Amino acid sequence: MKETPSNDATAFLIRNLPNLPKMRLVELWKDNFGKEPGRIRPELMLPILAYRIQERAYGGLSPNANAKSQIIATSLRPQSRFRDEARQRFKSGTKLVREWKGKTHEVTLNDEGYHYLGKTYKSLSPIACEIAGTRWSGPAFFGTKKVKAS
């Protein structure tokens, strides 16, 4: 494909992104995204900006390619341990009770997560930390950790 002056300018800009000062990168970010970049290091801005500049100059992915990339990205996301492990082991409405320093603490498993003192959590660990005042494994704290068969 023969490069037009516009393509030459785009290629030149992308090649020179690593040499630009952060202030110029921030300006380019605002031009390309319509907002401030927030607290992002220049090293992380470079590939994002390069992609966005190319996308605007040459066009983005086709709808078909975009749909396929979304499917792939979704399949690569880590699965929530709550939805998998807890759902397999406990039914909604299950109550986990733990006594800690003379006080009884009750957590109820529901469709959204773990309910404790009016709040819903996605995992047991933040609840265990809140109760104990230090980092704890929630399953270990509440005694729900799977025991490996020996």
What is the element layout, followed by pairings?
Blueprint: H1 5-16, H2 22-33, H3 42-58, H4 63-76, H5 81-89, E1 95-100, E2 103-109, E3 114-116, E4 119-121, H6 125-132, H7 138-142
Antiparallel strand pairs: 1-2, 2-3, 3-4
Helix pairs in contact: 1-3, 2-3
How would you sum up this structure, described in words?
The protein is elongated, with a radius of gyration of 25 Å. Helices cover 51% and strands 13% of the residues. The chain has 150 residues and is of the alpha+beta class. It folds into 2 domains: 5-76; 82-142, no CATH class. The protein has helices at residues 5-16, 22-33, 42-58, 63-76, 81-89, 125-132, 138-142; strands spanning 95-100, 103-109, 114-116, 119-121. The chain has a 4-stranded antiparallel sheet, covered by helices on one side. It is built from 7 helices and 4 strands. Helix 1 runs antiparallel to helix 3 and helix 2 (22-33) crosses helix 3.
